[in-house]
Structure formats: C-alpha cells, structure tokens
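Example 9 (inverse folding). The structure is encoded as follows.
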C-alpha cells in the first residue's frame, strides 16, 4: 500500500523511512546500483532523480531536492514563462515511497520508487499530484468507500527513428504480429512481473505496430504507480531491442491512437457497489449515482485525462476511443463502458472510462475520478438511457441524444475550471497551475498542422 495521507511528515515518519531505507540498502546490495525516484509533472511526463543505493536511506529520510518549476515544463521540455511556477527560487523534497519500490530487470541494475513532494518542513506540497490522489483515497475511506482501479496501456512499437515506422507487421489481435514480436512480448511480461506488476494479458492491438497490456486492479494510488512503472519498463525493453515505444494519444495523423482506459470499481463494506444491486445490470443505487456522476463530469475530467492537443486527434468517433458522453454495457464507442461481472465473477463489475489517454498524469486522474465519485456517492442520480452501437454512424436512432465530449483541450479545460467538486477537492493551486500548463500546450500547438501536433508529442514519456 502507498504511504497513508497526512498533511505533514513527522520526525517519526522520517526516522521510520530512514530505517526502511537502511534495510533495503543491505538487502539489495550487489543486485541494485541505484534507485530512480519519479514524480509525474503537469504535462504527464515522469521526472526523475536517481540516487546510488548507498544514498537510499538518506533520500528516504529527507527526500531529494526538486524545484517546483518542473510543473511549468512544457511537453517540448521548455519552461512556460507565463506560469505562476516560473520562478528560480524554492525547493521541494521528493520522498520515495519505499513500499512501492520495485527492482527492475530493465533497465538492469536499477530500482524504481515513486515519490511524494513535501516542503522542507515536512508539509505536503499542495501541488503534489500523488499526494492529491492519496488524500482523495483517504477522504473516500472516511466515508467508508474505497476504489479499485487499473490503467490499460496501449503503445505502438516503432523502429528507432524520429518518425514512426512500425517495427512489427501483422494486424490487430493477429497471430502474425504476436509471433513477429513474441520474444519482445515475453521480455515485456517477464520484466513487468519481475518488478511486481500483475499482468492480466497482452495482445496485438488494432493500430500499426500496436500492443496492449492490462494489469490487475489496485487501490487508486498504486494503480497510478503501476501505470508509471509499466510505461518505464516497456520503454526500457523497447530501447534494449533497438526499438521505440510510443504511448502518445496520436502516433500518426488520421489513424487510431493509443488509449489509456481507466477501469474503476467502488466498494463499501466489502461489496462492489456496481454489482449485486437491484438496478440495471445489478447496479446498486449508490453505484448508479457514482456512474451517473462520472458520466456527467466527463467533460471536466477530460482536461486531466486527455490533456494534450494531440489527445483530441485521437478522441474521434468510430475509433473505440469513447468520443461520446454516453454510457453503454460493453459499448466500445461509449466514453463510459459498463463492464458487468460475469456470472462466475459478479464482483468484477466496473466502469471503463475510455476517453482518457496516456498523456494524462495518472495520479491527477485517479484522484479526480475518486473525488467526483465520492461527491456523486452522496447524491441520488440516475443514469440516462443507455446507448448501444456507434452513434457516429449515419441513421443511428440515438444520434441526437449522443453528445460529443469536448473536441479540444481548450473546451475541456473550461469544463474543468467550472467544476466545483474538482476545484474543492484539488484546491486552487493544483487546478490553476495545471490549467496554466494546459494553456501553454494549447499555445504550442496554435497554428500547427495535425502532422506537426502529432510529431510534437509522439515520443512523450
Ligand atoms: N485504441 C483505442 C483507443 O484509442 C482503443 C481500442 C480498444 O477498445 O481497446 O482508445
Ligand atoms: Mg485496447
């Protein structure tokens, strides 16, 4: 489990982390040379500082220094001069969460741990995305509600060039592509499992050179940690084999993209609120309220879950990306796909939020979904009519009812800034610095062709 949320780290926390660090230094000596500690910035990029193994206990006690300006970095690697964070002073401590430390096979000799950001006096930094997610989980637990989440990861494997040339042929779900990349896929699975990731399945996806891996559901913060780890490991395995992995929402203009679908279920008193009830498909009243709240808030959540201009080149009808603000049981065109547990496993029921992609900061997204779900759990709301089929095809009987989600980052951002639940949960600092960083991306993309926008974000990590 990730470190529980409290507004500040005490001296007792520091001492306990230091002891744990010392124990790991002894345990991993000879196997691991260094530990990479990451956080994910507002542009969805994992930022890293690494320490030698012999420095782990110290880093665990006091953290490693990281300027708050990192959240003003744009996807192009520059600093947004208009951001409130664009100042040279100040420092934060990025403290590894040693309970989530994983020893890596790729890259070899390294371990990884996600970090939380604190002020030097130990107070949680209000702009720390992982701490926001931890706080939302804690708020849910206070109300007796918890969540299980899992991010699906789609990626396209390319040759080691700036442009994208698929490194494997074959078609989606095809044995030819699977066999062409069987050694690679095996190394991906082995490396993930060796790092403690529980892989559920891997398959060739529909797009050129595309694969997908799904992992077991976990608490929301761990699910976000796993998302960072999975992308890191797939990138490292690809690089080792002279290839490049693109997780970008749009890898090629005018083609299907990579989704980062988020599966979520919500639990109370040991039962899944999305199963075993008297409502449609076994939804409980509270489960339906949560699903309805999520559906209603999707435009606002989209700014966090599809945060790049390129996200909107992916989020188009008839691509299974979930471009419509509708729900449907097992409907892959619906932004909210209801997955009913099977008779043999009813508790597996969950909602799949398909409109999101992997340029999202997974901590912000997991925390925001949790915040919306918690506030929806306290209200009564019914889901609207279910939509089946693809509302994008001509003559669809529910075409009028099927509203498109925002078609640009600017429109999604407006919905986010107007969402009181999310502002109350995340606080002004997190929302306003995030919004500033999105405006910088909108400006970077201004006047660019689709081709240029795709090129700009193709290799983001
Ligand atoms: N690649 C699609 C997307 O952009 C998803 C395909 C699927 O349903 O798994 O989200
Ligand atoms: Mg898929």
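The amino acid assigned to each position is listed next.
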């Amino acid at each position: 489990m990730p470190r529980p949320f409290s507004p500040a780290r005490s001296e007792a926390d520091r001492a306990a982390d230091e002891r744990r660090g010392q124990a790991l230094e002894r345990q991993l000596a000879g196997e691991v040379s260094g530990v990479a500690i990451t956080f994910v910035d507002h542009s969805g990029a994992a930022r890293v500082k690494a320490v030698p193994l012999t420095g782990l206990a110290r880093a665990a006690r006091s953290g490693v220094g990281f300027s708050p300006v990192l959240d003003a970095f744009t996807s192009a690697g520059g600093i947004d001069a208009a951001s409130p964070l664009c100042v040279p002073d100040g420092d934060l401590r990025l403290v590894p969460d040693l309970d989530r430390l994983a020893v890596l096979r790729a890259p070899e000799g390294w371990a990884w741990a996600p970090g939380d950001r604190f002020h030097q006096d130990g107070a949680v930094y209000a702009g720390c995305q992982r701490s926001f997610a931890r706080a939302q989980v804690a708020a849910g637990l206070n109300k007796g509600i918890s969540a299980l989440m899992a991010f699906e990861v789609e990626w396209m494997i390319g040759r080691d060039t700036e442009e994208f040339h698929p490194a494997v042929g074959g078609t989606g779900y095809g044995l030819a592509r699977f066999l062409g990349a069987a050694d690679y896929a095996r190394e991906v699975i082995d490396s993930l499992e060796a790092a403690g990731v529980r892989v559920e399945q891997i398959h060739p996806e529909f797009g050129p050179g595309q694969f997908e891996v799904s992992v077991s559901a976990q608490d929301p913060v761990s699910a976000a940690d796993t998302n960072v780890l999975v992308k890191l490991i797939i990138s490292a395995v690809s690089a080792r084999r002279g290839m490049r992995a693109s997780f970008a929402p749009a890898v090629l203009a005018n083609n299907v993209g990579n989704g980062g679908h988020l599966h979520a279920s919500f639990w109370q008193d040991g039962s899944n609120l999305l199963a075993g009830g008297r409502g449609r498909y076994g939804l409980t009243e509270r489960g339906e309220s949560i699903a309805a709240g999520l559906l209603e808030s999707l435009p606002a959540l989209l700014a966090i879950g599809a945060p790049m201009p390129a996200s909107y080149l992916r989020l188009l009808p008839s691509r299974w990306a979930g471009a419509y603000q509708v729900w449907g049981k097992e409907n892959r065109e619906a932004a909210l796909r209801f997955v009913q547990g099977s008779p043999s496993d009813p508790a597996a029921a969950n909602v799949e939020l398909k409109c999101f992609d992997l340029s999202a900061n997974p901590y912000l997204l997991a925390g925001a979904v949790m915040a919306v779900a918690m506030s929806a759990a306290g209200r009564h709301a019914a889901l609207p009519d279910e939509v089946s089929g693809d509302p994008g095809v001509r003559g669809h009987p529910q075409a009028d009812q099927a509203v498109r989600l925002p078609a640009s980052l600017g429109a999604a951002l407006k919905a986010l800034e107007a969402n009181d639940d999310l502002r109350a949960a995340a606080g002004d600092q997190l929302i306003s610095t995030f919004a500033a960083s999105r405006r910088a991306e909108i400006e970077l993309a201004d006047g660019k062709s689709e081709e240029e926008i795709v090129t700009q974000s193709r290799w983001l990590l």
